[in-house]
Each structure stands twice: as C-alpha cells, then as structure tokens.
C-alpha cells in the first residue's frame, strides 16, 4: 500500500510541477524599425515613404493604355539648384523579350528625365524647398505586347552649386 501511495504521490508531484511549464507560454515578435531624417541642406525624397516599393500600372481594357503613376517629391538644396537623371537612361517595361519593351516617359517638375543630368528645380525654388511631381507614363502597348512586365528605374538627384559669373 505504501508503494502505491508513494508512486501516486510522485506522479502527482511531477504532474503538478510540469503543469505550469505547459500552461505558461512565451511568444515573441521582432519589430524592425527605421527612420530617415533628411539634412536641412539637401534632400530629395518622395513624400509618401511607401512610394517606389511595388507600383502597379493598371491596364485599361477600353482604351488599351496603362495608367500613369505619380508622386510628390520634397526637394531642397539651400546651396544651389537640383538636377536629376535616370541612371542608364529612360526606363522601359520589360517582359523577358527585349523586342516587346514598352517605353516609359518620366517627368519631374515638368522636365522629362533622360540619362543626362538636367535641372529640375532652380536655385530660387530649391532654397526654401519645393514639392515636385514625378509622373511616369507608359507608351500605349501594341496588340502583341502582352504578359507581365517589370521595370527598375534608379533616379539620381544631384545638388548643384550655384554658378557665379
């Protein structure tokens, strides 16, 4: 009888001591944070921090055109003007077949961007800072241009010192 009691008591002790271990749990989650605080002298960044992640140009079945994209960029240079260009020249939508490329036209503050730096904000406007619209429009796809297209378009902004005569 004593052996049965000792065995039952030890099982009870094990069960009770293990119960809190199974009842109490732990959950964790990692939060990655970042912050971008631009300098007061020069900056050029989209007002919407999510702009440029994965933008979609929707196809209109009636007109046969892709919808344009636009975003406002906050641009400032307290010591001159701001020039911009597309690294590698104007971008295209690509589906894996270079003969099927769809041309993209990108304007910033009304200036069409190419592979050559051009003034997009003059010195007078860039000193206090300006909100400038970037607009990306695709050429109308032909009847043979079908499928999934992508593009990568690195836009470079240059702070240009004033030219003194």
UniProtKB/TrEMBL annotation:
Residues 1-23 form the signal peptide. InterPro entries: Fimbrial_CS1-type (IPR007540). It comes from the Bacteria. GO terms for cellular component: pilus. Keywords: Signal. It holds the Pfam family Fimbrial_CS1. This is Adhesin major subunit pilin.
């Amino acid at each position: 009888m004593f052996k049965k009691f000792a065995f039952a008591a030890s099982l009870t002790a094990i069960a009770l001591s293990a119960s809190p271990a199974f009842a109490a749990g732990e959950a964790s989650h990692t939060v990655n944070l970042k912050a971008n605080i631009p300098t007061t002298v020069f900056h050029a960044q989209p007002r919407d921090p999510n702009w440029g992640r994965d933008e979609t140009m929707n196809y209109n079945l009636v007109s046969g055109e892709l919808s344009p994209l636009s975003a406002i960029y906050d641009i400032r240079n307290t010591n001159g003007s701001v020039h911009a260009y597309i690294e590698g020249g104007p971008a295209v939508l690509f589906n894996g077949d270079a003969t099927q490329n769809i041309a993209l036209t990108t304007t910033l503050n009304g200036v069409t961007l190419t592979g050559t730096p051009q003034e997009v904000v003059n010195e007078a406007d860039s000193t206090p800072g300006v909100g400038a619209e970037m607009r990306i429009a695709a050429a109308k796809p032909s009847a043979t241009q079908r499928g999934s297209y992508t593009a990568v378009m690195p836009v470079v902004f240059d702070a240009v010192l004033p030219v003194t005569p």
